[in-house]
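ok so I'm stuck.
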Amino acid sequence: MASVKLEEEATERWGDEWSIFIRRWANGGAQIIAEHVEGLTAEGYQKKHRLMKGPEGDLGHDVVLVEQREIVSQEVLEYPDGVDEKSG
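replied:
not stuck anymore, here's the structure
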């Protein structure tokens, strides 16, 4: 499974300081990215290293700067038992 190899590579590079993001599309496709947050730049951007596997299993690595998005409003409509606003 692609995510297992990605997890192994992320652990080798960053120890336990990474997370996996999976985006699935209705057509069955998926994008899996392991991400490590390095910290903030002097300009206040969040610097992230990302790993992803290509269709042939080759490893990609990029670095992105992200402007933090803030939640300006939240209305809880319904959360299942055991899920709060931080984990949901």
